[in-house]
Design goal:
- The protein has 493 residues and is α/β, with parallel strands linked by helices.
- It folds into two domains: 353 residues, 3-Layer(aba) Sandwich (Alkaline Phosphatase, subunit A), CATH 3.40.720; 99 residues, Arylsulfatase, C-terminal domain (2-Layer Sandwich).
- α9 packs across α10.
């Protein structure tokens, strides 16, 4: 401190020292608020209750549990679709799959269509148009290094299933670098069949080259703001683990006679958690934790044969709660409350406008977004009545499963660990009320989620005016999106 400063009164000198310390502190509010880095981690088919912190009493998920303790868990966060590709385009663009005409998984126009149903769904989607503005195309112009690692699945496959398109892949949609590496997932067996029989020693989860490449991105791009998008293949089937020690661990926890695939599924969930832990540890090692916004979620609900989706009804592929409600964990030290939970609903289309707000990036001009900025919710603001009552819309105009439909259960149940028959449907949630419209039979179902989260008591007949009002809102929203609808099979040539 210079001579002039030394002649200042003691209280003033103390204030100056405090201000100087605040300016140089690596944890100061000024430093933390200076445009956070972003790590977005997307799991594949992870159910809403697959994590220990979400109430699962069998799976061990210590790293994601820690993320939940250090951030906020959103217990009624939703995917924008009950199926992979449709959900992913919503996350990427902030636009509804209904608006995009991308309501199913990407398929070639020549793909066989299911037959024998009363209705026929719209043509399958193939490529997310390059004209659609993605997360990377919002963040890169704001000075962010962008990287995409893992599953894309919103365009035609190149060089085999899930291979990135050379014309419509991440590198053509704003991401500066990336890799589709299958890592330690069972998809890697296709290229390395011998890998499947290479069992792992106790305590070894296996080397995941996908995670290693994402870690390398963190190490090489730490000198500027970055957006790392990690799209895991875990825990999508084929269900298998080379960690026999994990199977034995879970065999001791499940009742005798449990489907062996559920043991391997539990091992895959824990393995996913381990790889997420490697990413989080890297942020800590590089001193990036305090100024990095981490978002973790899943693309859709859990698979009906493996995931413990109860007490919610349904699963991946349908619009009951377990098909679209997914884990959402957000951590941003000093900004997102630690150890908190929120039951205010939001949806995958909200990701793009929310991340744009977090870094003060402009939204794409002239683009009709269906998502909203929910950053105040993430940061702990008390939600308004309008936010709690905000209508959320889903649209799935197809039958599923595509094959074996007659053998699937006719009723969509709760934690029955079986594939059920899904019919073309749309849904709207407004506050605690949820309406599901079934196009086959032109029928509505109405549920009050606070009183009946398992959607067991259809109140449409008891509350006809409410059901009618919600159906009117649903139809109007879908028309405004220029949604595609199933048509009667008899009307087709």
């Amino acid at each position: 401190m210079n001579a002039v400063a030394l002649r200042l009164p003691l209280q003033v000198r103390g204030l100056i020292i405090a201000l100087l310390a605040l300016c140089v502190s690596p944890l100061s509010a000024a430093t933390v608020s200076a445009r956070p880095n972003i790590v977005f981690i997307l799991a594949d088919d992870l159910g809403w209750r697959d994590l220990r912190c979400a109430g699962n009493e069998i799976h061990d998920t210590p790293h994601l549990d820690r993320l939940g303790r250090e951030g906020t868990r959103f217990t009624q966060g939703y995917a924008a679709a009950p199926i992979c590709s449709a959900s992913r385009v919503a996350l990427l663009t902030g636009r509804s799959p209904a608006r995009l005409g991308f309501e199913f998984v990407t398929k070639l126009p020549t793909a066989k269509r299911p037959a024998g149903h009363a209705l026929v769904g719209p043509p399958y989607p193939l490529n997310l148009p390059l004209s659609e503005v993605t997360l990377a195309e919002v963040l890169a112009p704001a000075g962010y290094a962008t990287g995409y690692f893992g599953k894309w699945h919103v365009s035609e496959h190149t060089g085999g299933y899930l291979g990135w398109s050379a014309t419509h892949g991440p590198l053509q949609q704003g991401y500066g670098e990336g890799d589709p590496d299958f890592g330690n997932h069972t998809y890697a067996y296709r290229e390395r069949p011998a890998l499947k029989t290479e069992l792992l020693a106790a305590g070894d989860y296996g080397r995941d080259t996908l995670t290693e490449k994402a870690v390398a991105f963190l190490r090489t791009r730490r000198d500027r703001p970055f957006f790392l998008h990690v799209a895991h293949y875990f825990v999508h089937d084929p269900i298998h683990t080379r960690a026999a020690w994990l199977i034995e661990k879970y065999r001791a926890r499940y009742p005798s006679g449990t489907d062996p695939r559920r043991l391997e599924y539990a091992a895959m969930v824990e393995t996913l958690d381990h790889y997420v832990g490697q990413l989080l540890r890297t942020l800590d090692e590089l001193g990036l934790r305090e100024n990095t916004l981490v978002v973790f979620t899943s693309d859709n609900g859990g698979h009906p044969e493996y995931a413990a989706n109860g007490p919610l009804r349904g699963s991946k592929w349908n619009l009951y709660e377990a098909g679209v409600r997914v884990p959402w964990i957000v951590r941003w030290p000093a900004y997102v409350p630690a150890g908190a939970t929120s039951d205010t609903p939001f949806i995958g289309t909200d990701l793009l406008p929310t991340l744009a707000a977090a870094v003060d990036a402009p939204l794409p001009a002239g683009v009709a977004l269906d998502g909203r900025n929910v950053l105040p919710l993430w940061r702990g603001a008390v939600p308004t009545t309008a936010e709690r009552e905000r209508p959320l819309v889903w649209h799935f105009p197809y039958y599923h499963p595509e094959s074996g439909y007659a053998q699937a259960l006719s009723n969509i149940g709760v934690a029955d660990f079986a594939v059920s028959q899904t019919r073309p449907q749309s849904a709207l949630r407004a506050g605690n009320w949820k309406l599901i419209h079934l196009y086959d039979g032109d029928r509505d179902e109405l549920y009050h989620l606070a009183a009946d989260p398992g959607e067991q008591r259809d109140l449409a007949a008891r509350e006809p005016l409410r059901a009618q009002a919600l159906r009117h809102r649903l139809d109007g929203d879908l028309r405004a999106m220029n949604a595609r609808f199933p048509v009667a099979a008899a009307r087709l040539p």
